[in-house]
Specification:
Helix content: 25-40%
Order of helices and strands: HEEHEHEEHHEHHHEEEHEEEHHHHE
Shape: globular
Largest sheet: 9 strands, mixed
């Protein structure tokens, strides 16, 4: 009996060892850290000497370590003409001593010329097949030279450009002005029927403010695209808006507001700040924080006239205040505000829907619901969704409810003796 127990124990121990040997793996690379050069970003443009001009922003590890590291000193840029991205890596190794590695690459940036020619659809699958490429790396399009854009990745608050761009491309969660556009997501959308893609738009900043002496008119913050935002100071790049991809080719751009609407309809919206004229005092601007009350409800059906799409959006929001003395804690004022916000969002959605129909590009993902109308891929191809969607009737319903009306108990004018509504 004792011998049997020892035998069972020995078998169990060896089984554990065998399991560990099979499932626990070490480093996937046979190179030491000081033998590889870590590529942080890849820039791809149409080639002049060869098929492609590929730029690599490469980390300088010793300059990234420590609290005294300065932005702009932690990386260097190289550009190589080559037929493929992988050939460019090997050619770069003819003058970069350490072996090039993509294990820490955080982003792939295409020029607009490359995107319009379909290089995103051509190159992204092969890049993702490479074991070192991260599926979470962002994909972006620039209307500038990718190499020049990468040279301006000089963060002020971060020593590491990778960390800076990681934070910048994640701000869709609280601005809504760009999309997530991770490489794996874009690749999946390129393969899936019934949807088109939006990738982040990143451009250089002109670093100029208007010199006009006249008072400017109200303009929504999201009405800009990357490169147009009047600014001065900080990093000389802007990430606002998106590039629309259809069949793997860039066909149009969206501004920040249009990109936010696309995020809202696609169910990828988190929260954002919204500014609009007060419904009671048109010269005053009121600020709100908006977020979903429920995820978007979309239904697609066929009628005798064609496709009918019903879209129902529900939002909640907090009043952050503004240049008005109207007390929106009062129900009659709050109701007017809720209707005005819902009307403004509905107008924005209808404009973006009209733009997508004009482009025959379903980047709002209605086609994902439309696929339920048929049972096979052949039936879907016969349906000709692009043409059906272009003439579809889209019914938009938007509900908005104010949840909080700021922390001010009573609104009162500060610089005038006039009494505002709601103060008596």
């Amino acid at each position: 009996m004792r011998v049997r127990k020892k035998r069972v124990k020995a078998i169990a121990v060896w089984a554990v060892f065998a399991f560990c040997f099979i499932t626990l793996t070490g480093c996937g690379s046979s190179f030491e850290p000081n033998e590889i050069s870590l590529v942080q970003f890849i820039g791809i443009d149409q080639g002049k000497e060869n098929l492609l001009d590929v730029s690599f922003l490469i980390a300088i590890p010793q300059n990234l370590a420590g609290e005294n590291s300065k932005g702009g000193e932690g990386s260097f840029l190289v550009t190589v003409s080559a037929p493929t991205v992988f050939q460019a890596m090997r050619l770069a190794n003819t003058f970069v001593g350490r072996r090039m590695s993509l294990i820490h690459a955080k982003g792939i940036i295409f020029s607009d010329l490359a995107a319009k020619s379909g290089l995103i659809a051509e190159l992204l699958p092969s890049l993702l097949q490479y074991r070192e490429t991260r599926g979470t790396a962002f994909v972006a399009v620039t209307e500038d030279d990718p190499a020049e854009l990468l040279e301006n990745f000089v963060p002020l608050l971060e020593a590491n450009p990778s960390r800076y761009m990681e934070l910048l491309t994640q701000n869709y969660r609280y601005t809504g002005y760009i999309t997530s556009s991770q490489a794996q997501e874009i690749y999946n959308e390129l393969k899936v029927l019934g949807t088109d893609s939006i990738v982040t738009l990143i451009n250089l900043s002109s670093e100029e403010l208007s010199k006009s002496e006249k008072q400017g008119d109200f303009r929504s913050g999201g009405s800009y695209v990357a490169g147009e935002l009047p600014k001065k100071g900080g990093v000389e790049i802007q990430a606002i808006g998106g590039a629309v991809l259809k069949n793997g080719k860039m066909i149009a751009t969206l501004n920040g507001n249009e990109t936010m609407i696309a995020n809202i309809v696609r169910g990828e919206f988190k929260s954002s700040l919204m500014a609009l004229p007060s419904p009671d005092q048109k010269n005053d601007i009121i600020n709100l924080e908006i977020f979903y009350a429920r995820t978007p409800q979309i239904s697609v059906r066929l009628s005798e006239e064609g496709v009918v799409i019903d879209l129902h959006l529900r939002f909640e929001g907090n009043v952050l205040g503004g240049g008005t003395t109207i007390d929106y804690a009062l129900k009659k004022n709050r109701t007017r505000l809720e209707k005005e916000v819902a009307r403004s969002i509905k107008k924005g959605v209808e404009e973006v829907v009209a733009k997508s129909q004009e482009l025959k590009a379903d980047f709002l993902n209605f086609g994902l619901k439309g696929r339920r109308l048929v049972s096979t891929v052949k039936d879907w191809n016969d349906l000709n969704w692009d043409n059906l969607y272009a003439s579809a009737q889209v019914n938009v319903q938007v509900d908005f409810v104010v949840r909080r009306t700021s922390t001010i108990f009573k609104h009162a004018p500060i610089t005038t003796d006039e009494v505002g509504e709601g103060e008596e």
